[in-house]
Amino acid sequence: MVDLTHNFDVLVVGGGNAAICAAITAREAGASVLLLEHAPKPMRGGNSRHTRNMRVMHDKPLSVLTNSYPEEEYFQDLLRVTAGNTDEKLARLTIRQSTETFEWVEERGVLFQPSLSGTLGLSATNAFFLGGGKALLNALYNTAARKGVEVLYDTEVRDLIVEDGFFTGAKIVSRGFPATVKAKSVVAASGGFQANIPWMKEYWGPGAENFIIRGTPYAQGRILKSLLAQGAARIGDPTQCHAIALDARAPQFDGGIATRLDCVPFCVVLNNNGERFYDEGEDMWPKRYAIWGRLIAQQPDQIAYGFLDAKAEKAFMPSVFPAIKANSIAELAGHFGLDAAKVENTIREYNATVRPGTFNGQKLDDCRTEGLTPPKSHWAQTIDTPPFIGYPLRPGITFTYLGVKVDENARVLMDDGKPSANMFAAGEVMAGNVLGKGYLAGIGMTIGSVFGRIAGKEAARYARN
Amino acid sequence: MRATENTAEARRTIEICNACRYCETYCAVFPAMTLQRAFTDEDLGYFANLCHNCKGCYQACQYAPPHEFGVNLPQTFAELRNETYEEYAWPNGSGRLFERNGTIVSLAAAAAIAFVLIAIMALRSPGILYAPQTGPGAFYRIVPWGVMTAFAGAAFIYAIVAMAIGAMRFWKDTQSDLSGPITLKALARALHDAATLRYLGNDGKGCNDLDDQYSQTRRRLHHLMAYGFLLCFAATSVATVYDHFLNWPAPYPVLSWPVMLGTFGGVGLTVGTIGLIWVKIVTDPAPVSRKVAGGEYALLTLLLLAAVTGLVLLAARETAAMGILLAVHLGIILALFLALPYSKFVHSVYRSAALLKAAIERERNKPLGE
């Protein structure tokens, strides 16, 4: 039994990768550590349970990582995806420490594997967790338990008690029972707010009801809101989130990787009015999938429908839900409740503009439309061979960008620009400092591990002094 | 393969796995899965037999219960595997013995022991069971050599024939491609993977045999059991050669090949089976199928009894208890051989065949999506 009347050295709020890395580091530095995870044990780990790799700088082949991935190349990749929306000092710190951090997690029981099929391009940059993020969490939680970190599941931190930027305790509800815990320092590793639909509606309007949250339902942003309300400086655009195209049949939360749909480049994508709205074949899918969440979110009722025919059926990997098939366009449109005549007309117009070409799903091919608005620049084939195939699409939200500002010691910066003495942040709640826009595969876990370790070390140092 | 609730559940699950693929390097099932985008019942039966029940994929699964996708591949495959044993068993209809397998194997063991005891009493004199027998040919004064060899040999040959027919049915049904040559390399790879339990080992990292931590416990215990079994079999074979061809009847001295092989094998079998029963009792129950547990316990117990009665017989072979001990030991061996093709033992046959199919496919194909 955890003694909640004990005055812990370090309180860790959250249960994902950043939280558990912070807890282990603080414990290894000699601090007494209490970690509070909102989820029950089988669902522990926040969004980390859906991840699969971390991006690691290395100057020569390292464990499962091939070739090299030097600091400058890593930083340029980050600059490109964020369009400069990054704090260079913190970004370079993350990148430089990623090598040592990778070895640190490996030493603490996390197993890695060579990159997966379909992701071979990442073998030089990303180290894949054997079995994925949940297996990583299992290993780290086991290490934490062995070292004596106290963990409480089913325990939500409702509010941080802060006086003039100084943390004194937290109001919690543990398995239904309210309590107050005291600690000398706190690490906020409590994630973003993407699962808080009312909060999302503040920026997206009622349409946010139709968003599918790819990760944990526990990312409610309570601690983020508490910190911001108590004078922590904010970073990141609150209206922005990482959103991709998802199968509309996905569960509202926690659908993870298996509900993504890779069909868009080979489809004609229509909105509720039976109209096209964007160039489906603009670029290779890995470079475009992250804009489609936003595109669909801007359509009426936040829904879209991908149409293709038998020719393109095998051009992409199947999703977890079966394709919807019909013998005519009208029948398929009817299945989705669309105006059949309108859809037939849109497809007819599209078919008439498709130029002859040689289809190749693996590269930017020469199959395109001519004289169509918006155009389809690649992989445009006529849709005329039954069975006709359709997928319903919704915006799938991965994470939000809003966070608290931190310094290089993971200390939360207050509105006056001064760091809090005993409040630290790690993971998605501060990732916006490094990743202010866009996404770079595997960097979320790297930020979480690197800043989790820094926050754990500094929080323990403060508490032990 | 019949379409059943288990094939439907396996298909639903494996389609989720094929859209996720995080487990791709755990074992041979996932690389085999990535070669396809749609799965027949036969494919699923093949995957189920390729699965070593290491539970790595369950412990790592973001979709495991209480997630609404409810993915529990080790449990689903364990139940489907049992159905494939039913499906391919020879002669036709004997597959029903895999339902309530624990009860059936236990009853078979009891019946065989009783049969041997009653036969000795009826055919020899009851007193012979209680009198000490020593010197060359001591065992055969209880059960004549010819009778012992005839029964054991017939039961053993029956088991081999039945399991070989089962393996052929599995091979044919899963549309394993025999048209191309099976290379020596594929054969060696399959043999190596089976003999080392590669997929319970994960390149030396072990499997999730007890909980969500990796350990080599189950793999090592299985090695003790399997190689113990083979040593015991070798002991019997050497003894047969000594007796039949060298005219040197049992019992043999302690420092002879049959006794040494039998002792080491018996100890391995004893420790291995007790250990594996312990693993079954203490392991995380979530990914385990309770439906097939009875048959698993029954075979482990039968193997354990075979080893223990053999060791006790060795220790007490010069006392008056030898007669009864020999009768019980032979009864258990008879039961074991008769039960082999209708027990969990058949997993070794189908697993090896599945590993061979995987090795062949690996040589010929590349995963989709690359």
- Output the CATH topology of the largest domain in chain B: Fumarate Reductase Cytochrome B subunit
CATH topology of the largest domain in chain A: FAD/NAD(P)-binding domain
Helix content of chain A: 25-40%
* C-alpha Rg of chain A (nearest Å): 24 Å
Reading the helices and strands of chain A in chain order gives EHEEHHEEHEEEEHEHEEEHEEHHEEEEH
The overall pLDDT average of chain B reads: 92
Mean pLDDT of chain A: 95
Count of separate structural domains of chain A:
2
Instruction: Give a short account of the largest sheet of chain B.
Output: none
The rounded Rg of chain B comes to: 22 Å
H/I helix tally of chain A? 10
Number of helices of chain B: 15
Query: How does the helix and strand content of chain B classify structurally?
Result: mainly alpha
Cα end-to-end separation of chain B: 31 Å
- Quote the beta fraction of chain B: under 5%
Number of strands of chain B: 0
Greatest interface and its participating residue counts: A-B, 35 and 36 residues
| Secondary-structure arrangement, i.e. CATH architecture of the largest domain in chain A | 3-Layer(bba) Sandwich
Gross geometry of chain B: elongated
Q: Strand pairing plus helix content of chain A: what structural class?
A: alpha/beta
Instruction: Sketch the major β-sheet of chain A.
Output: 8 strands, mixed
Q: What does this protein look like?
A:
The complex is a heterodimer of chains A (465) and B (370). With 465 residues, chain A is an alpha/beta fold. Chain A folds into two domains: 7-237 and 401-464, 3-Layer(bba) Sandwich (FAD/NAD(P)-binding domain), CATH 3.50.50.60; 244-396, Alpha-Beta Complex (Flavocytochrome C3, Chain A, domain 1). Chain A contains ten helices and 19 strands. In chain A, the strands form four sheets. In chain A, strands 1, 2, 6, 7, 8, 9, 18 and 19 form an eight-stranded mixed beta sheet that branches. In chain A, strands 10, 12, 13, 14, 15 and 16 form a six-stranded mixed beta sheet that branches. Chain A has a three-stranded antiparallel beta sheet with strand order 3-5-4. Chain A starts with 6 loop residues before the first strand and ends with a helix. Chain B is mostly helical and 370 residues long. Chain B folds into two domains: 5-90 and 360-364, no CATH class; 100-356, Up-down Bundle (Fumarate Reductase Cytochrome B subunit). Chain B is built from 15 helices and no strands. Chain B starts with a helix and ends in a 6-residue tail after the last helix. The mean pLDDT of chain B is 92. At the A-B interface, helix 4 of A face helix 1 and helix 4 of B.
